[in-house]
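Why should sequence recovery work at all? Because a backbone constrains its sequence more than one might expect. Tight turns favour small or flexible residues, buried strands favour hydrophobic ones, and helices have their own preferences. The token representation captures these environments compactly. In the example below, the structure is given first.
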């Protein structure tokens, strides 16, 4: 089990931050890659984080859960870190809400279309199912032939 850092200023390794924040080390590396989180390196190259990284990672997780993409979270971070809001931040959040609302409408339309397909599959009609337009025992007609012209039987 990772040791707990009680002393102010002491740094944690990536595994301890991941464990305490409830994410994978891979997620922490991704957050760094996206500019959401930063670390320092030990002389041997290991990542270390301040105690505050745990809370920051949990906040990042909440923002991802709310449907925000990393590019938007990066834009919001200065306001979050400063503890102030701005009209730009509210604008970003409103735009993301509109994007999510539109995506929900698209998904609802896709679900409704799928419901119609399921209904047709459960209750096929000649209108929707070519195989039901003519019974299987209807004699075969060659393409372009008149209905009275029948193709000779194969022997």
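From this structural description, the recovered sequence reads:
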């Amino acid at each position: 089990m990772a040791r707990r850092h009680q002393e102010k200023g002491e740094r944690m390794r990536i595994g301890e931050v991941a464990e305490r924040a409830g994410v994978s080390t891979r997620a922490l590396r991704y957050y760094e890659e996206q500019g959401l989180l930063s670390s320092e390196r030990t002389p041997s190259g290991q990542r270390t984080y301040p105690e505050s990284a745990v809370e920051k990672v949990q906040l990042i997780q909440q923002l991802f859960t709310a449907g925000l993409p990393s590019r938007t979270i990066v834009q919001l971070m200065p306001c979050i870190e400063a503890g102030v809001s701005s009209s730009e931040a509210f604008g970003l959040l409103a735009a993301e809400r509109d994007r999510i609302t539109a995506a929900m409408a698209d998904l609802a339309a896709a679900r409704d279309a799928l419901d119609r397909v399921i209904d047709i599959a459960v209750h096929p009609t000649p209108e929707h199912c070519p195989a039901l337009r003519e019974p299987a025992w209807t004699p075969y007609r060659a393409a372009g032939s008149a209905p009275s012209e029948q193709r000779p039987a194969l022997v």
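A few observations help interpret the result. Strands lie at 12-13, 40-41, 47-49.
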